[in-house]
UniProtKB/TrEMBL annotation:
<dbReference type="GO" id="GO:0008233">
    <property type="term" value="F:peptidase activity"/>
</dbReference>
<dbReference type="InterPro" id="IPR003653">
    <property type="entry name" value="Peptidase_C48_C"/>
</dbReference>
<dbReference type="GO" id="GO:0006508">
    <property type="term" value="P:proteolysis"/>
</dbReference>
<dbReference type="Pfam" id="PF02902">
    <property type="entry name" value="Peptidase_C48"/>
</dbReference>
<feature type="domain" description="Ubiquitin-like protease family profile">
    <location>
        <begin position="54"/>
        <end position="145"/>
    </location>
</feature>
<protein>
    <submittedName>
        <fullName>Ulp1 protease family</fullName>
    </submittedName>
</protein>
<keyword id="KW-0645">Protease</keyword>
<comment type="similarity">
    <text>Belongs to the peptidase C48 family.</text>
</comment>
<keyword id="KW-0378">Hydrolase</keyword>
<dbReference type="InterPro" id="IPR038765">
    <property type="entry name" value="Papain-like_cys_pep_sf"/>
</dbReference>
C-alpha cells in the first residue's frame, strides 16, 4: 500500500497480467454470459489475495493499471478513481494512438472491473450505479520522439 503523507491519498497498482486477463475474460464474456461471475483469478487482485499485490482494493482510493495497446506495442496508464467511479487514461503518445483505439482498449476494464467489484463486495461501504466512466486526460506531457 502506498500512502502520500501530504495528501493522505491511498493508491495501489496492478501488473500487466491483470490487463491481459481482463481482456481475455471480456472477449469470452461476449459468448458466455456467466464468465465474469465464475472468475476467481482477477477477483484475487481485488481482494488482496494475489501476491505481490496483496492489498484489498477496499483499502484504497486509487488503483493504477498499466494498459498495453496491442496494435501499437505501447503502454498507457489507467487510473481507477474508486470514490468517483471512473478511470482516467493517460496517453503520452497521442500522435500514435487515437482516442477511439484507447476507448476500445479501456472498454473491457470498464465492463469487467465494475462487474467484479459489484459481485465481490470488496467496496463494502460504497454502492455504485451505472457504468464505470472513462475519461481521456488531455493536458499531460506528450512524447515528441515518435
Amino acid at each position: 500500500m502506498k500512502v502520500n503523507s501530504h495528501s493522505g491519498m491511498r493508491a495501489t497498482s496492478t501488473d500487466c497480467y491483470f490487463d491481459f486477463k481482463i481482456r481475455s475474460i471480456y472477449d469470452r464474456s461476449k459468448k458466455f454470459s456467466d464468465v465474469i461471475d465464475k472468475e476467481t483469478a482477477l477477483l484475487s487482485y481485488l481482494t488482496g489475495d494475489k501476491i505481490p499485490f496483496n492489498s484489498n482494493w477496499g483499502d484504497f482510493d486509487h488503483v493504477l493499471i498499466p494498459i498495453f495497446m496491442d496494435k501499437k506495442a505501447l503502454w498507457i496508464l489507467g487510473h481507477f478513481d474508486i470514490a468517483n467511479w471512473h478511470i482516467d487514461v493517460y496517453n503520452s503518445s497521442f500522435k500514435t494512438i487515437r482516442d477511439t483505439a484507447i476507448l476500445d482498449m479501456v472498454q473491457p476494464l470498464q465492463n469487467v472491473i465494475s462487474k467484479l467489484l459489484r459481485r465481490s463486495n470488496v467496496l463494502k461501504f460504497q454502492s455504485f450505479e451505472g457504468p464505470l466512466y472513462c475519461r481521456l486526460c488531455k493536458d499531460i506531457p506528450h512524447q515528441t520522439n515518435g
